[in-house]
Amino acid sequence: MPRLDRPWQQRMQQRPRSAMFSNVQVSEDTARGLSIAAMVCGILAIFAVPYLLGPIALALGGIVLQGAPGVRGNHRGMALCGFILGIVAIVIFILSLITGLFQYGAGW
Prior knowledge:
mainly alpha, elongated, 4 helices, single chain, 71% helix
């Protein structure tokens, strides 16, 4: 195994590289706020502005789910709810764009 001189090299060796938000460490208070924000953005994304609030809910939910492994209960549930609602809002938005193009044409 190669010698690791710098502390950041050791940290990078220990963490999985496949996780989307693997470099984020979130405290309990921050996880609470981010999970509430993810859920609210996810709910609002279903009804209004899905192209803006959907990715925000997806990102905030992902940060809490990946960055706070010790978070349990309501905070994890709200983050998961925001994450899923963000995905649903993005899918609905993309489907509405596709059906709009088929219904009204691309304008060419």
